[in-house]
Design a protein that fits this description.
Layout: H1 7-19, E1 24-27, H2 33-39, E2 45-49, H3 52-60, E3 65-67, E4 78-83, E5 88-89, H4 96-102, E6 103-105, H5 110-119, E7 123-134, E8 147-156, E9 161-169, H6 171-174
Helix pairs in contact: 1-2
Amino acid sequence: MIYEPREDSVLLKKWVKKLVKGKVLDMGTGSGVQALAALEKTKDVLAADINPECVEYVKKKGVNALQSDLFSNITEKFDWIIFNPPYLPEDLEEPEDSKLSTTGGVEGNEILLEFLLRAKAHLNTNGKILIVISSLTGEAEELFTDYSWKELETQKLFFEELTVYELSLKEDLYFRK
């Protein structure tokens, strides 16, 4: 199953078009909407997804893509890493094929936490992360312990709030990478 763009994707895409440049990674690419938006600004874009169906789908759209469970198959560093993480708490009734794009773990934030931990090694000096997070994930700022962050925009929906953040490593962490 390919995650089709919804409100979270549209909100994030707006900021991708405004901010990204240089070498870009679209983590969890899904339909490739963020990678395609980034390609309007730079030609150095890599899309990654755990789902092989998504990887093949975005390759057909002309995007350089590879299958990877977060950073497991990625060795490079990037100026921008884009991520629209799956953020819903596990629902035992949900079909397995849709869980890849919607479920962030038992609590809903486990994939996000793993991403934030591993992304540090894949940011160039002064590299940034552009991420959209739902209020259903909990207090996102509490998860950003190693990052300086800026809230770019919040969109209120009927059942949640979506917020786009720009993250960068705290300066002292550049020296520990």
